[in-house]
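Whether sequence alone determines local backbone shape is best considered at the level of individual chains. The sequence in question and its structure tokens are set out directly beneath this paragraph.

***
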Amino acid sequence: MDVKAVLPPRGRDYRLDLLRGFANWAIYLDHIPNNAVNWVTQKNFGFSDAADLFVFISGYTASFVYARMMLERGTVIGATRLIKRAWQIYVAHVLLFVIYIAEIGYLAQRYHDPNLENEFNVAGFMHNPAETLYQGLLLAFKPVNMDVLPLYIALMVCYPLVLWAMLRKLNLTLLASFLLYLAARHFGWNLPAYPSGTWYFNPFCWQFLFVFGGWFALGGASESISFIRSRAFLWLGGAYLLFALVMTLAGRFPELGQAMPAWLYDAFNPNDKTNLAPYRVLHFVVLAFFVTRFLPREWPGYEWPMFQPLLKCGQQSLEVFCSGVFLAVIAHVLLVEVSGSIWMQILVSIVGIVLMTALAYYRSWSKKVDKAPAKAPAAAKPAE
């Protein structure tokens, strides 16, 4: 095999765990409307948000794990393991889908608020359950806040061929991905959703961020390291992040937005998340380069106790993500039906993160128990 990619060093990259844990916490907070605590998340300070981080890290992780498998055990083995992982994510999505709809139905009855079914886009299921369930299994029907995993599944299913190409023509594959991204934006390509509309995360656009994560893992970061460490990037990248901060805050505070020229404000507000606007991609690329520059792989801070909950949530990402989607609904209903005070916002935010972290620690412990070798039975004492 004529391999051109450069695999990362063996061993766990705790940067990925740390950032993926942060992304899971941020997605949970962002899924709770009218929650002041979500002002601490990335979406309020720039064009990209935790969803971009989640997709990028997913592409990065899939690439270095399964690329090594393809090289050491063969392309077929690596490709089938990728499909197996996609199937595991699909099963998790279906389970969450069923629980999510039951949860909303129960809460709507419990608080006598049928509007919840419309708010979370599950009213169609109540009126036509068979067809809606069928469309849900096809990933066409997605309740509110359940768009990320279908995107992840679609990208993983298509990724074996992409990864095979990246191992041979890394930069050319990234270029092809970028051209698909541009074509999808230009021609309006997207997948249809049920009962109407299109996917919230356009897979033809978001695939570029996933592939960029793979490119980053398989040598792109090392190829770009001289630029990443340059003074020019430090100033230009910093200036762009500052610009993104100002434009994002302009969308949050009308007074600031009104002080800007209309043509400038309208170019960035509202932020085009569905089709992954170019300014959003650039913002994330700059952030990824800054993290590479300032957060080394061997940083001793990963051992600090304060970071252990984030690391653990990143290591058990799928379970933590699913629990966050479930808990965000409860948190939202509590804020609407019980109290929307700032103290309640803080309470539901903290309790949700604590429960997600507890689940992560439990899953970590459970996996260790499952992998632990069985103790040999004690030898019987000889009869006297």
